[in-house]
Amino acid sequence: MNGESGSGDHRTLDSVDSARKRSFHVLYVDADNDVRCRVRDELTPTYPVTTAESLAEAADSTDPRVDCVVVAGTLAASDGLQFLEQVRTVWSDLPVILFGHTPDACVLEGLLEVDNATAVSRSDTETSPSNRALERLRSRLDEQYERSISDVRATVLDIARLLMSAAPDEIDVEIEWALKLIGRRLDADRCLVFDYHDDILEPTHCWSDGERRSLGPSKVATDSFPGFELAIQSFDPVAVPPKSASSLEVDVPDEFVGSVLPGENWSDSDADARAHPYLSDRNLESLLAVPIVVEWELVGVLAIEQETKRSWPRSLQQQLKTLGELVGYTLEREERRRELARQNERLEQFSAVVSHDLRNPLNVLTGYAELIAETGDTEHIDEVLASAERMETMIDDLLALAQDGATLDDLQQIQLEELVTTAWDGVETGEATLETRHLDSLECDPGRLRQLFENLFRNAIEHGSTQRDTAAVSETGSEAPPVTVRVEGIADGFAVEDDGPGIPPENRDAVFREGYTGGSGTGLGLSIVETVAEAHGWSVSVESGDLGGARFTFATEESPRESS
């Protein structure tokens, strides 16, 4: 409904003053052009307003942007009932305010009997309304506005349908669309979903009103987030402004002593709450943050931010907690799907390794065993033993990869120098040499990290020795110099490099895949290395090193993930 009269005061929503207004579009209907202009000018600092000069014009100009209709009493008294019936054919619950002077009050109130969505705001005079009458009208609009942004059950239900039907590759898009829906419904400036991990809140999804301020924050320490330790961690919402007795949805007896406000334990006053650095830095007057809980575990926070002051009724907080749970279970479902896909992919890769690579040493072992059985000659017993040892190594590697890579045990702060030396002693290094530089302490699972280093050392020695032996025999006929492996601390982690043949750039993306090998190894060692690194929350990359061979760099800024 966006009707306008032809008497020179046409005003559309697009031409409304661009100053910050509530997203609550008012249609004012009045035959008096002067009154229309005055009411419009009085309301537009707060609300976008369009006007119409007759009920017929208003009813015929149905516009979905209209949130409330205000009808002058003189028009309502004549054919207001017919107008209400027309409105209800389009919007069953659109609020209608009847703005009339005192002599028409009986007529106006009579209309309430047939339509409980209407309200009456009295005007003191038959001519231009007084300032007091306009203040009452604004109060009525404020009530309707607060009501419109305090019940989001229908929107949450729509979002539930949206998320449940989302395809795997649509999850992130649908969550951000859900934030947009709820943000528009609440007239918010920003809506964010934070992931909670290791005392850090990191925004993963964000919607911001394009006509308002910029996006929300990057990572936030939990001790810098309002009320996190005293409310969110206890699975309670955080509301700014805090709840007050006047905002309760129950009657509190005058004689009542104490507090009936759950969760109000992080701030003593409205002023203290809004002075919090998180809010002041972002120019926020209002915030509602609800915990995202999945299977009794806090996994994130849903935050609604506004740069204007508003209340947060308890019922609305509960509705948004439901939305947080929907988002949490959607993300959890997608993570489980991805983990299942990774497991299926790993199973396929294991099958390929078992059926191909493991079959080769088995065929060699079987062939030589049959030859020995036929001839009684033990000349080839060494080949049999070598094939058996290779199969045993491959089986150990497969078992290591088959374990849950995300599970860590016994996280400790260890001296990296000592663990590297222990891992080196656990590998057949022959004449190879180890160099260590600038190694500090590191929080890790020592057993898993030792497994990482052992596989890197074994990989460097096997490939380096094979390449050097081949080159030395072909060129000089003499023995090749021993392999050198270096482990050093770097600014954000550590690195392991060698002076072997290196890894060609075109193969670096493939080296961590099961079955990849550049020599006589099992093809599983580097996959184990990546699995251990990911279990700790680290990233690993490979490049050329200063020694001329491969250099594996581990960024360890993220803390390890504890096993669940």
TrEMBL record:
- Spell out the CDD domains in the cross-references: HATPase, HisKA
GO MF, any single term: phosphorelay sensor kinase activity
Keywords associated with the record: Kinase, Phosphoprotein, Transferase, Two-component regulatory system
Q: Name one Pfam family in it.
A: GAF
Q: Which InterPro entries match?
A: CheY-like_superfamily, GAF, GAF-like_dom_sf, HATPase_C_sf, HATPase_dom, His_kinase_dom, HisK_dim/P_dom, HisK_dim/P_sf
Q: Does the keyword Transferase apply?
A: yes
User: SMART domains this protein is in?
Assistant: GAF, HATPase_c, HisKA
Domain Histidine kinase span(s) in chain numbering: 353-560
PROSITE patterns of this UniProt entry?
Answer: HIS_KIN (PS50109)
Give the reaction(s) catalysed. Answer: ATP + protein L-histidine = ADP + protein N-phospho-L-histidine
Q: What is its EC number?
A: 2.7.13.3
Return the protein name: histidine kinase
